[in-house]
């Protein structure tokens, strides 16, 4: 049986994304983001709930100003094209 898609949203993936965010936005707290995202509830969450939790926690650790936060995410995404 194939691996559930939800398992692709893993510690390894989120850790890489968090470090990449910190590389363009130094105040980003990698450890805090990972701990608050992958808490004791993580294993029981389905894909949609995992994605929601990731996005909610990004909102906590990125700047409150929406345009600034989107600019940071854009910079990270543009780096993936390199």
Detailed description of the structure:
With 82 residues, this protein is mainly alpha-helical. The protein has one domain (5-80). It has helices at residues 11-24, 30-37, 47-61, 66-80. The longest helix has 15 residues, at 47-61. The termini are far apart.
Percent of residues in beta strands: under 5%
Show unreliable segments: none
Structural class: mainly alpha
Extended strand count: 0
SS element count, helices: 4
Cα-atom radius of gyration: 13 Å
Query: Could you describe the largest sheet, including whether it forms a barrel?
Result: none
Measured between the Cα atoms of the first and last residue, the distance is: 34 Å
SSE string, helices as H and strands as E: HHHH
Structural domain tally: 1
- Average residue pLDDT: 94
- In helices, the fraction of residues equals 55-70%
What is the strand and helix layout of this fold?
Blueprint: H1 11-24, H2 30-37, H3 47-61, H4 66-80
Helix pairs in contact: 1-4, 2-3
List keywords for this structure.
82 residues, mainly alpha, 4 helices, globular
The gist of it:
With 82 residues, this protein is mainly alpha-helical. Helix content is 63%, strand content 0%. The longest helix is centred in the middle third of the chain and has 15 residues, at 47-61.
């Amino acid at each position: 049986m194939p691996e559930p898609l939800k398992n692709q949203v893993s510690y390894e993936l989120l850790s890489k994304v968090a470090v990449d965010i910190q590389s363009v936005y130094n105040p980003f707290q990698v450890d805090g983001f990972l701990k608050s995202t992958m808490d004791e509830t993580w294993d029981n969450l389905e894909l949609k709930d995992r994605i929601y939790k990731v996005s909610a926690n990004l909102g906590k650790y990125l700047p409150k100003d929406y345009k600034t936060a989107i600019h940071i995410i854009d910079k990270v995404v543009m780096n993936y094209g390199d």
